[in-house]
Design a protein that fits this description.
single chain; about 350 residues; alpha+beta; Creatine Amidinohydrolase, Chain A, domain 1; Creatine Amidinohydrolase; 2 domains; 19 strands
């Protein structure tokens, strides 16, 4: 996936690179090698696979093939460029020329072969220094996140009264995607989930040709993208005459989500939010059916810190973005998940996924 040319001011990306230099000083790093598309976008404004970066406190070098040369130069002002040179040689040359000693890279983002090459050039695995910057959203990021969340909430409200018996999961997902674009989104935020019937009991179901039947459960897990920023929302409902069992399970999940959302405020850990939702579901007797974490951060990536899962030590702070999405899944019968995207405020939270 490529992001259209960014409308953010180049000054925003320069400011991010300057702040990264401050992180380097605190962590005693001379440089860091970046390979993640999202990290490189955050630093440069250029979103594409096939290029890499080496940042120091003063400069950011981008390594790209001749194929990307024109685009990377146009879309990443203020950076320095190494075009068409073998990556390992280019990195080694810069390390030697600038006498860089303590250079890190994120081993979780690299294949073994490239990681092994970097080690041989003197680089070492090190926690990603960008994480602490990306986890707190700036105002321009919040504008895009709010718009993406609003479009998503409006779209789910638009599709629900238009659901008809006989519609397939694929057709429902496609209708949602078209509506996203019509409302101004730049595309989907991830592979959309539209599930009907027993397929709602599969947390990451892939939409297929299953048709919706009368008196059946429906689950939409959807999100769009505005610029590079994404949204995430899940709604579960019953098409037709609701059963007492579905109503009971829905109310448990609804109560669990409410408990989790009420916990979201500065100073609380992701583990505490997870415990709040999980406690409600466990007390109701469905603990073993809640098979995933309560939530995650959202931004350039659909899954990023802070992590809202058991024992997570991530401490919430203002302008972090996260989801709260408890679920109950009864295999072969139905599943219920309810999810909203929230912003942590100075004294609590703001629900962004409102129409």
């Amino acid at each position: 996936m490529r992001i259209p040319k960014e409308s953010l001011s180049p000054a925003i990306f320069r400011e991010r690179r300057d702040r990264l230099g401050g992180v380097f000083e605190r962590k005693k790093l001379d440089a860091y090698f970046f390979s993640s598309v999202s990290d490189l976008y955050y630093l440069t404004g250029f979103h594409s696979e096939g290029f890499y970066g080496l940042a120091t406190a003063k400069d950011t070098w981008l390594f790209a093939s001749a194929l990307l040369a024109g685009q990377v130069r146009e879309n990443a002002p203020g950076c320095r460029f190494v075009i068409g040179k073998r990556l390992s040689v280019a990195v080694a040359d810069l390390v030697k020329k600038h006498r860089l000693k303590r250079i890190g890279f994120d081993p979780d983002q690299l294949n073994f072969r490239l990681g092994d090459v970097l080690r041989k050039k003197g680089l070492a695995p090190h926690p990603n220094p960008l994480e602490e910057l990306r986890i707190i959203k700036g105002e321009e990021e919040l504008i895009r996140l709010r718009k993406a969340c609003q479009i998503t909430a409006q779209t789910v409200d638009w599709i629900k009264p238009r659901v008809r018996a006989g519609m397939t999961e694929k057709s429902l997902a496609w209708a949602i995607e078209r509506e996203f674009v019509r409302r101004g989104a730049h595309g989907v935020g991830f592979d959309l989930i539209a599930a009907v019937g027993a397929n709602t009991s599969l947390p990451h179901h892939i939409p297929g040709e299953t048709p919706l039947k009368p008196n059946s459960p429906v689950l939409f897990d959807i999100g769009c993208r505005v610029g590079a920023y994404r949204s995430d929302l899940t709604r579960s409902f019953f098409f037709g005459k609701i059963t007492s069992n579905y109503r009971r399970v829905y109310r448990v999940v609804e109560s669990a989500q409410r408990a989790g959302i009420e916990t979201v405020r500065p100073g609380v850990t992701g583990g505490q939010v997870d415990a709040a939702t999980r406690g409600v579901i466990t007390k109701a007797g469905y603990g073993r059916t809640f098979v995933h974490s309560t939530g995650h951060g959202v931004g350039i990536d659909i899954h990023e810190p802070p992590w809202i899962r058991p024992k997570s030590s991530d401490v919430l702070a203002p302008n972090m973005i996260l989801t709260v999405e408890p679920g109950i899944y009864l295999a072969g019968r139905f599943g219920v998940r309810i999810e909203d995207t929230l912003r942590v405020t100075a004294d609590g939270h703001e629900r962004l996924t409102r129409p």
